[in-house]
Amino acid sequence: MNRLLAVVGLAALMACGGGNGASDVPTGPTSLQIEDVVVGTGPTVVAGDTITINYVGTFLDGRVFDQSPAGQPVTFPRPIGVGNFIPGFDQGVLGMKVGGRRKLTIPSSLAYGAAGAAPTIPPNTPLAFDVTLVGIVGK
Predict the structure, then answer these.
(1) Active site residues
(2) From CA 5, how far away is CA 28, in angstroms rounded?
(3) pLDDT tens digits, residue range 40-61?
(4) Which among 55, 112, 51, 43 is positioned nearest to 79, based on CA atoms?
(5) Is there a smaller number of Cβ atoms within 10 Å at the N or the C end of the chain?
(6) CB contact at 8 A, 18 and 85
(7) Whole-structure pTM value
(8) 3-state secondary structure at position 132
(9) Domains of the chain
(10) Rounded CA gap, 6 and 96, in Å?
(11) Alpha-carbon distance values, 61 to 7, 57, 125, 137 (Å)
(12) Gap between the Cα atoms of 57 and 6, Å rounded
């Protein structure tokens, strides 16, 4: 059941795009912010890799809207960095090394933009992700 919820959550990240960027009232950051909490020592993520991660997605006020099941890393069903996920997530994970932990703060223009992702993500909403890279399939 937890895996199903994780897959449903991943679907929210996948292929929804970043909206049209024509937002009138965006709040939060205006560019992608990346903070390496722990720099990994393993292989590095490049565009086209399939990754296994633990993650928590939150609004900037800390409310959780999505997360991988506790202690159960999720392997994304599509490659990262090639437009399968919201642009800020796609861009923010590239360059991570296995074993690393990164905090991403994504402006609405690189998330779901003016369209939002109803019913979970309102329009013009910046998002934050705490991502731990567990592995890269085939590396």
Answers:
(1) 55, 65-66, 86, 112, 129
(2) 28
(3) 999 999 999 999 999 999 999 9
(4) 51
(5) N
(6) no
(7) 0.81
(8) strand
(9) 2-136 (3.10.50.40)
(10) 21
(11) 24, 11, 11, 33
(12) 12
